[in-house]
Amino acid sequence: MSRTRTATLLASALLLAGPAQQAQATALEKARFVFHLGVAYYAFNTWVWKPYRNYQFQSGAPGQRAAIVKAGLALGFAAYQVNAAIKMTRNTQDPFLQRIGALLPNFGKSLSSVGDNLKNGRFDERGIQDLNRAATNLLQSAERQGQPIRPVAVPIPGL
């Protein structure tokens, strides 16, 4: 085979493989992004929303103080995961990541704010309700765009 033909075949193969590699990178980016948000949602749902709905944060509830502090730690962990997802959206060209990423900065700040209150033993009922609305909005947005976010169970140190 002549050098010209070999070079042409090699160049063609690289041109065809280039978009495939970019598509795989986008799929990997999406998977990591959805994983981070799934972990954050799991922490919020398991350690904050369910205990809140079961009245474990109310005055006089058994283990109230411990439940509030655990919720604060879980929200700190969730905020960390959301911030990791935000970092992934900064330089991406993927429309899904850009759209969902635009919703995350305020959500991350809210997680941190409510989490700090709970870690310090201050129950913030309105903050928890607002977080649930924001989380539901985020999940529905992702679902409408064909990329559902599901809770991902991971152990949280100390909880």
3D structure, described in words:
This protein is mainly alpha-helical and about 160 residues long. It has four helices and no strands. The longest helix is centred in the N-terminal third of the chain and has 51 residues, at about 5-55. It is elongated. Mean pLDDT is about 85; it is low at about 5-25.
Task: Name the descriptors.
159 residues, mainly alpha, 77% helix
Topology:
Layout: H1 3-53, H2 64-89, H3 95-119, H4 125-144
Helix pairs in contact: 1-2, 1-4, 2-3, 3-4
Q: Which radius of gyration do the C-alpha atoms yield?
A: 21 Å
Helix content: over 70%
Low-confidence stretches: 5-25
Average per-residue pLDDT, rounded, comes to 83
Termini, distance in Å?
Answer: 65 Å
As a percent range, the share of strand residues is: under 5%
How many H/I helical runs?
4
Order of helices and strands: HHHH
- What is the structural class? mainly alpha
Tell me, what's the shape? elongated
Which sheet architecture does the biggest sheet show?
A: none
Number of strands: 0
